[in-house]
């Protein structure tokens, strides 16, 4: 299959999914604004003027940022009851549409979702948090946002792997397990006196878009996503969808 045809099929898949669930985009916007409001309460100063973060801040950020890679849709709401992702793959295989076009369509969906959701989440968080505005200029805050977008790319690679290769019940347990793992990570880091958000704020404030965390996160996120996508595409081609 030529590269041009693969991209053409991928865009058809992306536009078909988006066109069928346009009303669900409202839920995306509302959820992103709710996330921003909830996170804004985690940033504060103490009585001495020192910059503090609630202990739950890392956990919430690690948990919620991957959601910027999703568009809410009937499929995402019904994946457990109807195993909707498997049904989608079965439908595309009957057309037939090759696995690499399906995967490319999902990557396009991921990248556009991160952009669409990020446009609402990150500016809203910056506007709602006076502490963030006092710590970071606009350029520095963009570096902060991009750092977390890199993490979102990496985690969404894992979600895509389970979304395409496992049944809805397994995908649910993976999602619950990821919550436990990010909670453990957040509290282990906190137990050693660290804080991931404070680290990204400090590096972004010091180096802005030259921050090594920005580019390290984006490179690791892109490479991790590419690796998971390659493995998923290879296994998807031979997955039994019966």
Automatic annotation (TrEMBL):
Transmembrane segments: 23-45, 51-72, 107-129, 141-162, 169-189, 209-231
Keywords: Membrane, Transmembrane, Transmembrane helix
The name this protein goes by in its record: ABC transporter permease
Source species, domain of life: Bacteria
